[in-house]
Write a structure and sequence with these properties.
With 385 residues, the chain is α+β, with helices and mostly antiparallel strands. It is built from 11 helices and 17 strands. Helix 9 runs parallel beside helix 10. 34% of the residues are buried.
């Protein structure tokens, strides 16, 4: 029986695929993503594995692909597999501004994403296009504008959901045993990163939608006078707040309490960087309660955790995901970029807000996430005036 014919693959493709395979193997080994660790493998063993990979690719790889797409897919897989905050962004998304301008349009759904899983809807803004279009908590978003989301990062998904006009975003969601196609318009949901409301017969509510730089100055100017003169307790609403900057969140927490130790960030090698709120608490005291849900993430979790543990403020809602970390951005030679988690946060007690999140003091049913439901849990706790 003669030798089977082999497909001839251009040499540059073989070299590219071999380099990518070698890079991924070494990266995965060093990061502990494979069953063995780098310290347990000798360089000679590693090279033997690379030689074996080279032979397999050269002799048995059957499908030709665009090398640029192959390289981008490999980079995306390596980085996105690290944790929910780390992300690889191609040139198109890398060029988008990182800070919100509040001119963006969005459908009004918030997702949480782990690598290798479809993003899950963990928050839906009330009266948003997503709410009106039938997006439900717990939906799994399998595609955005016909692009599969399985290998995407949470950052990439959030950028794809945003727009500049009201053009609908096409979503494919998995709900139970069925697949649902939804066309969800985009809209400008908020004109600024916070809303201060004083409805009659109810406690005032300070809702934070994002933690951009400059938030504290704007809150101090527009809200603090009313908070200082308050005769009624107020609620800090952090539901569906998933973006912003860690430093802006620390400054915001400092508005309500002063403390030399509110936690620490742990960096590579176990190095801990203490975090303090050293300035005077300009608000004159913390809020009476905090509202949180599964879409309370990142900077908002940091604020809620500090106020819960150090300020003894009660959290009303559901557990949060636990993604309080710092990231660094690196621009690559082709103008794509990489976000890498560089430190994670723990409270003074040692309780980590990375991967564990916050537990509420008063639970709200997961199937009853309306503002009315949160208010019903809050009113019985209000101090008598």
């Amino acid at each position: 029986m003669g030798d089977r014919p082999k497909m001839r693959i251009p040499k540059y493709r073989v070299v590219l695929l071999t380099v990518l395979a070698a890079a991924f193997l070494l990266f995965a080994t060093q990061m502990g993503l494979l069953p063995w660790k780098a310290s347990q493998s000798s360089p000679r063993t590693g090279f033997r594995l690379l030689d074996e990979l080279f032979e397999l690719i050269r002799n048995d790889y059957l499908e030709e692909r665009d090398p640029v797409q192959t390289a981008e897919g490999s980079c995306r897989g390596m980085v996105n597999a690290l944790d929910p905050l780390s992300a690889y962004l191609g040139r198109d998304l890398s060029a988008r501004p990182r800070a919100r301008t509040y001119k963006e349009t969005e459908p009004g759904l918030i997702v949480f994403k782990k690598y290798g899983m479809f993003p899950q809807v963990v928050g839906v803004v009330e009266d948003s296009p997503a709410a009106k279009s039938g997006v439900l908590l717990g939906d799994l978003v399998s595609a955005i504008d016909h692009r599969n989301t399985l290998s995407m990062s949470m950052t990439e998904i959030n950028l794809l959901l945003e727009g500049t006009d009201e053009t609908p975003v096409l979503l494919k969601v998995l709900r139970g045993n069925e697949s649902v196609q939804l066309s969800v318009p985009r809209a400008r949901l908020f004109s600024q990163p916070f809303t201060w409301s004083r409805p009659p017969g109810r406690p005032p509510v300070l809702a934070i939608h994002d933690f951009p730089a400059g938030l504290v100055a704007d809150v101090a100017k527009d809200v603090l006078p009313a908070i200082r003169s308050r005769k009624r307790p107020f609620v800090l609403d952090l539901r569906n707040c998933f973006g912003g900057e860690i430093e802006a969140a620390r400054e915001f927490a400092n508005l309500f309490l002063k403390a030399d130790d509110v936690g620490s960030f742990e960096k590579k090698g176990g190095i801990r960087e203490p975090v303090a709120c050293p300035a005077a608490a300009e608000a004159g005291g913390p809020p009476f309660a905090i509202w949180a849900n599964s879409a309370t993430m990142g900077p908002a979790e940091l604020v809620a955790g500090i106020l819960q543990e150090v300020g003894k403020v009660k959290i009303i809602g559901v557990p949060t995901p636990g993604v309080v970390g710092r990231t660094q951005r690196f621009i690559l030679k082709d103008e794509s970029s990489v976000l890498l988690t560089s430190a994670v946060f723990s409270l003074p007690s040692g309780r980590s807000l990375w991967g564990q999140g916050l537990k509420p003091d008063v639970a709200v049913p997961i199937d009853g996430q309306s503002e009315k439901a949160y208010l019903a849990k809050t009113l019985p706790l209000l101090p008598k005036l």
